[in-house]
Amino acid sequence: MGDALDLLAEGAPSSVLVVIQNRDDSIDSVEFVDDGPEALLDGARTYVRRHKGAVRYAIAYEGAIELDNGTYADALLLEFGERGRRSFSAYSLFEGRGQHDRFRWTDPAPAGEEEPLLG
Question: What CA–CA distance (Å, rounded) separates 3 from 71?
Fold first, then answer.
């Protein structure tokens, strides 16, 4: 999540980041870019499902969260899970994309349960 927040602070184009921990404790990190938001997210989820040896994963991407007053706020969304366990999501609101030192974000908040990608 920290790497994704750093990219937002720098104003990097929207992408989907995937980090996978393997059985041998090695880490694979992949960035999905150059497509529409749904295609990027679908590609990231498919990558996790097909990744041999994965024991846990996190997927981070930009989106929006509806606030109590009915408006929407920019958010970094995170999906994460572990083989054989339930998967969850969280979000962190942010403002000041591309403004480096003036970029601000909230502590992560729970967003609910997700479909497990590792079974």
Answer: 27
Mean pLDDT computed over every residue of the chain:
95
Whether this prediction's pTM lies above 0.90 is answered by yes
Collect all residues with Cβ–Cβ distance below 8 Å to 36 and sequence separation of at least 6: none
Distance from the Cα of residue 117 to its chain's centroid = 14
- Residue 14: the pLDDT is 82
CA distance 110 to 37: 22
Listed residue (59, 39, 33) closest to 115, CA to CA = 59
Question: Rounded distance, CA 37 to CA 61, Å?
Answer: 9
